[in-house]
Design brief:
single chain, Aspartate Aminotransferase, domain 2
């Protein structure tokens, strides 16, 4: 398969950073030990995991002993919600725009959702009304995976202190980590989930920060790894690669935000000018730098994605095909976006490797594709 001419789907996954690959290679070859063993080969692997744990802890603003390595963001979210409820009882409250890993876990636990405003920000009054002494955990993502809206976790925590002081706050920071100072902004959260492949690390590895005083019942039972919070042999190469990607991401975050934010603005402004009737979703000033979310009334996003893919442009839509029927994004529905517009949405997500040439190509291809579809409609 030929490489795409423009990859604008970094919110789905990112290219592996060279720093991550370099860090991983030794643990895919000569340093193959199981870190749970006691001999020299195992001790070398354990030392690498311990070093990575310190790096992850610094990036998440917690102590090394509070880091739990997982198989990704979905597992981290499920461990946080199910783990707290299993240990403490009670129920879950989450925002209506969470990732499905949180929404489905909340539903499975008999929890409830709180709405958001047209800007995608959680309704704090509705949150307060939903809280009582039966709530043990509240889950509000730091940055949304579809529209990039940043949530006010400090304000969420203040509402919780008044209405449900015994509940703990969990945040899915998977989309936030490449762009935001998670160590600071997620400070009010007792539980913080991240996934390596969203910031240049490998797929299949993530972490959950479980701050001191917060206990979770494990989802996986076995050898007692991760202080009995997540059993299973460590993915040493993945963990080391995640730590290397984290370190590089944090170091370069300010410069990356400035460069990619400028590219995103040029892309969004160019498409709004070039496509009649185009609408930008949410408030740009409260969105992570890599997210450009637009709606093109009069077309269907799935048809648009086919044309873009044929032209060498990778993107995604704010809608998904379920059981053969096109359904609008739950995020856009929660924001009050009309169904017809939700089904005409396009998420263009930029990242570290995005170039001016890719933006130029998108500015050429997308208006042409939308015009073609409208002409056929």
């Amino acid at each position: 398969m030929a490489a795409p001419l423009a990859y604008l789907d970094h919110a789905a996954t990112t290219p592996l950073r060279p720093e991550a690959l370099d860090a991983m290679l030794p643990f895919l070859t000569e340093h193959f030990g199981n870190p749970s063993g006691s001999h020299a080969v195992s001790r070398a692997a354990r030392a690498a995991v311990d070093e990575a744990r310190v790096t992850v802890a610094e990036a998440l603003g917690c102590d090394a002993g509070e880091v739990v390595f997982t198989g990704g963001g979905t597992e981290a979210d499920n461990l946080a919600l199910s783990g707290v409820v299993a240990r403490r009882g009670g129920t879950v409250v989450c925002s209506a725009v969470e990732h499905h890993a949180v929404l489905h876990a909340t539903a499975a636990l008999g929890g409830r959702m709180v709405g958001v405003g047209p800007d995608g920000v959680i309704d704090l009054d509705a949150l307060a009304a939903a809280l009582d002494d039966t709530v043990s955990v509240v889950s509000v993502m730091l940055a949304n995976n579809e529209v990039g809206v940043v949530q006010p976790l400090a304000e969420v925590a203040r509402v919780m202190r008044r209405a449900a002081p015994d509940a703990v706050l969990h945040t899915d920071a998977v989309q936030a980590f490449p762009w935001l100072d998670v160590a600071t902004l997620a400070g009010p959260a007792a539980l913080v989930a991240v996934s390596a492949h969203k910031f240049g690390g490998p797929k299949g590895v993530g972490a959950l920060a479980v701050r001191a005083g917060t206990e979770v019942e494990p989802l996986l039972h076995g050898g007692g790894q991760e202080r009995d919070r997540r059993s299973g042999t460590h993915n040493v190469a993945g963990i080391v690669g995640m730590a290397a990607a984290m370190r590089a991401t944090v170091t370069g975050m300010q410069a990356t935000n400035a460069r990619v934010g400028a590219l995103r603005d040029r892309l969004a402004d160019g498409l709004l000018a070039a496509v009649p009737g185009a609408v930008e979703t949410g408030v740009r000033a409260n969105r992570i730098a890599g997210c450009c979310h637009l709606r093109f009334p009069g077309i269907e996003s799935e048809a648009l994605l086919v044309l873009l893919d044929d032209a060498g442009l990778c993107a995604s839509a704010g809608s998904a095909c379920a059981s053969g029927a096109l359904e609008p994004s739950h995020v856009l529905a929660a924001m009050g976006v009309p169904r017809s517009e939700a089904l005409a949405s396009l998420r263009l997500s930029l990242g570290l490797t995005t170039t001016d040439d890719e933006v130029d190509l998108a500015l050429k291809i997308i208006p042409e594709a939308v015009a073609r579809l409208r002409a056929c409609g």
